[in-house]
């Protein structure tokens, strides 16, 4: 779908909780809790990861078709970028 | 109420949950009244992470509603931790711009270095140790940033020379404890800053390196916190101490610092209280040593200034004199607490009349210490 490479921003404070992933990006007023697959995606983004590679890995991990998660992942990554938690190049 | 023990006993088991060797047991069931009490005290004791894990392990009658409540408590607690870490980074910027040498103490350091998962360690303020030579400058920097001291110091230079430190209320709405030492009084005066700054650990927050005390110095700080802090001891510093001991310490380094600072009695007491609190079955060389250690008369008297039912600022102030080796230091110390600035008296004692009463108590305690 795209060759964009995503990476978590280094200046984010975060905790992995039982309830999900708690993020406090540098520009955010308050921490944000993300649940579902967020902790797994956050781990993937510890190193620069191509979108297509992320899709393949998540499809494998969650035993779903890659085509079924592309849109959701795209939206989630856009959310991360919007809140100042991830970059895309 | 279907409790298998009091609230305090259950909370103690929550605090020890997952500790290798702990023989404390949590009940599988708990009625609503008991749950409400355990939850309230656990949150107050900053144990929401351990409480949640205990529920998820099938303890304490883990209904969906209780798990959801504990989850929310945990998220709130970790949200506070992240916000405090952000404030810590802001302080790091201020101190870096002023070439101030410092180390972060307690919560953030222990959470990231000494717990298997940082989300298990909650904290509610920021504690920083600053080099004595930089202490006054650090106070000025925090003041310029809008921080307000909780108390004025008794005399100019007292905090840097003799004090534990000072609490600043920062404009962002949090408390920052700026430490020169771990505690006030004789045990605080025995802490040698050069030892604390000789080595360092580090944590990484938001991509930034923040220096902490060394592992062994963190252990000694935890001993101070556990034994000389709140009465009865709060659970978190005891858990900190257990975490540090069970995950390995350089015993030679601990012994060297303990001996140099003359705090064998304090360390032995802290280790024994921790072992008893969590009913730890495993014996470590340090716990064996602590069990067999017999404090001297002087150690017992100085510890009593902190932990007995008659403990007071006055008795600690009096006991501190024995920890000051030089006559000039003793004179400066007594002068500062006997004739503090008017600003200090107004803030701390509510006026000279109350100060006089406290002064009489100090005099009485000095008399006691000479017995």
Written description of the protein model:
Chain A is α+β, with helices and mostly antiparallel strands and 89 residues long. Helix content of chain A is 39%, strand content 25%. Chain A is built from three helices and six strands; from the N terminus they run ββββαβααβ. The two termini of chain A are 15 Å apart. Chain B has 371 residues and is an alpha+beta fold. Chain B is built from 19 helices and seven strands. The N and C termini of chain B lie far apart (50 Å). Chains A and B meet through β2 of A and α3 and α4 of B.
Summarize the entry for a quick read.
The complex is a heterodimer of chains A (89) and B (371). Chain A has three helices and six strands.
Approximate shape of chain A: globular
- How big is the Rg of chain A? 12 Å
How much strand content do the residues of chain B show?
5-15%
Output the helix-strand order of chain B. HHHHEHEHEHEEHHEEHHHHHHHHHH
Rounded to the nearest angstrom, the distance between the terminal CA atoms of chain A is: 15 Å
Helicity range of chain A: 25-40%
Please give a handful of descriptors for the protein shown.
heterodimer, A: 89 residues, alpha+beta, 3-stranded antiparallel beta sheet, 39% helix, B: 371 residues, 5-stranded mixed beta sheet, two-stranded antiparallel sheet, 19 helices, globular, disordered C terminus
């Amino acid at each position: 779908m795209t060759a964009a490479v995503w990476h978590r921003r280094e200046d984010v404070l975060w905790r992995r909780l039982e309830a999900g992933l708690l993020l406090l990006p540098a520009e955010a007023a308050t921490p944000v809790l993300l649940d579902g697959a967020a902790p797994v995606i956050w781990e993937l983004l510890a190193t620069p990861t191509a979108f297509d590679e992320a899709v393949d890995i998540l499809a494998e991990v969650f035993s779903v078709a890659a085509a079924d998660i592309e849109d959701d992942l795209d939206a989630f990554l856009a959310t991360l970028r919007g809140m100042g938690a991830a970059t895309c190049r | 109420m279907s409790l298998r023990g009091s609230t305090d006993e259950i909370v103690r088991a929550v605090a020890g949950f997952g500790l290798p060797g702990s023989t404390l047991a949590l009940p599988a069931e708990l009625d609503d009244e008991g749950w409400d009490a355990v939850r309230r005290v656990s949150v107050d004791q900053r144990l929401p992470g351990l409480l949640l894990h205990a529920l998820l392990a099938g303890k304490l009658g883990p209904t969906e509603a209780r798990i959801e409540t504990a989850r929310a408590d945990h998220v709130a607690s970790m949200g506070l931790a992240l916000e405090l870490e952000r404030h810590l980074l802001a302080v790091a910027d201020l101190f870096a711009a002023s070439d101030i040498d410092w180390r972060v103490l307690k919560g953030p350091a222990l959470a990231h270095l000494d717990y298997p998962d940082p989300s298990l360690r909650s904290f509610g303020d920021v504690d920083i140790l600053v080099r004595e030579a930089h202490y006054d400058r650090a106070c000025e920097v925090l003041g310029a940033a809008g921080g307000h001291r909780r108390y004025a110091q008794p005399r100019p230079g007292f905090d840097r020379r003799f004090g534990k430190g000072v609490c600043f209320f920062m404009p962002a709405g949090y408390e920052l404890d700026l430490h020169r030492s771990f505690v006030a009084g004789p045990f605080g005066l025995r802490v040698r800053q050069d030892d604390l700054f000789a080595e360092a650990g580090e944590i990484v927050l938001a991509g930034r390196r923040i220096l902490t005390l060394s592992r062994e110095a963190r252990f000694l700080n935890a001993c101070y916190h556990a034994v000389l802090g709140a009465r009865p001891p709060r659970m978190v510093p005891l858990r900190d101490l257990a975490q540090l001991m069970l995950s390995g310490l350089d015993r030679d380094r601990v012994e060297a610092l303990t001996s140099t600072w003359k705090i064998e009695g304090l360390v032995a007491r802290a280790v024994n209280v921790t072992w008893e609190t969590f009913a730890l079955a495993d014996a470590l060389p340090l716990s064996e040593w602590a069990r067999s250690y017999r404090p001297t008369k002087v150690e017992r008297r100085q510890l009593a200034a902190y932990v007995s039912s008659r403990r007071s600022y006055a008795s600690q102030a009096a006991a501190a004199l024995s920890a000051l080796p030089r006559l000039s230091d003793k004179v400066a110390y007594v002068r500062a607490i006997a004739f503090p600035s008017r600003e200090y008296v107004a803030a701390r004692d509510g006026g000279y009349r109350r100060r006089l009463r406290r002064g009489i108590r100090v005099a009485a305690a000095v008399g006691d210490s000479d017995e």
